[in-house]
């Protein structure tokens, strides 16, 4: 038995089948994304490569999006958009400055809507602050800048090795940082080094450390750790870099942020025991009057 096919009928049948499939896909998409549109943005990525004097150069732009939940008193669900642009010779170190356009917009909760241009090697936001990491050259130290996730405002610059106090059931944290003279931003440093105490939103204090001669304060970030007071209920991480303020929650007040301290240790050449400075925290600030250190060796000065 032979069957005769008309090309016209075949084409017509294919068109009908495609129409059915497209309609089914449309209905499925409508079902999956049903509801009122809150936000939509389509930013394509692109790359171009050129050759000049026998060397390859490239230029690229790429985007990423993420949705974060900021828990606490001013809670919000936010959409974070990061557009990264980079142009350099292909053989250059990838740890070079890139251009970032960062936008943060609230979807629910506290109203947040800001955009900021930042030049950095890379960007991180895992701690619910925008953390810009800057490239280093020579003997400089890795240097970072924190920006407030809620308004894009700068909080502080610091060199490698921040300490953290975590407040349960909230995105809010407390940070203790050090800014050394070897910072890659070449920021001015009063004295021999600066310690800083800050929240996820603002810088609270900056304290200059100056050695009087018995100890040479190095140009790099010294050893630092968190200490907890007995019966405070605070939980210290094994590495001594993080403390959890277990008795606190989203309704905490400044008076509740207490019961721990930060220690900075300097070593003198040829000696194994360090010279330490302990900065106790009381009422959500460093209590400089109660700081423990050898006043014949160090001088501390509140500069902010």
Task: Provide key terms for this protein.
1 helix, 304 residues, disordered N terminus, single chain, 2 domains, mainly beta, 19 strands, ten-stranded mixed β-sheet, five-stranded antiparallel β-sheet
Question: How does this model look, in words?
Answer:
The protein is mainly beta. It has 2 domains: 42-137, no CATH class; 153-304. The chain is 9% helix and 46% strand. Strands 6, 7, 8, 9, 10, 11, 12, 14, 15 and 19 form a 10-stranded mixed sheet that branches. Strands 1-2-3-4-5 form a 5-stranded antiparallel sheet, with no helix packed on it. The relative contact order is 0.10.
Number of strands: 19
Low-confidence stretches: 1-18, 24-32
Mean of pLDDT: 86
Order of helices and strands: HEEEEEEEEEEEEEEEEEEE
Structural class: mainly beta
Give the overall shape, derived from the CA principal axes.
flat
| Proportion in helices | under 10%
Rg over CA atoms: 27 Å
Largest sheet: 10 strands, mixed
Query: How many structurally independent domains?
Result: 2
* Discrete helix count: 1
Distance separating the two termini: 96 Å
- The amount of beta strand, in percent, is over 45%
What secondary-structure arrangement, pairings included, does this model have?
Layout: H1 7-32, E1 46-52, E2 55-70, E3 76-89, E4 98-109, E5 113-120, E6 122-124, E7 130-134, E8 143-147, E9 154-166, E10 173-179, E11 193-199, E12 203-211, E13 223-228, E14 235-236, E15 242-244, E16 260-266, E17 275-282, E18 285-286, E19 298-302
Parallel strand pairs: 9-15
Antiparallel strand pairs: 1-2, 2-3, 3-4, 4-5, 6-7, 7-8, 8-9, 9-10, 10-11, 11-12, 12-19, 13-16, 14-15, 16-17, 17-18
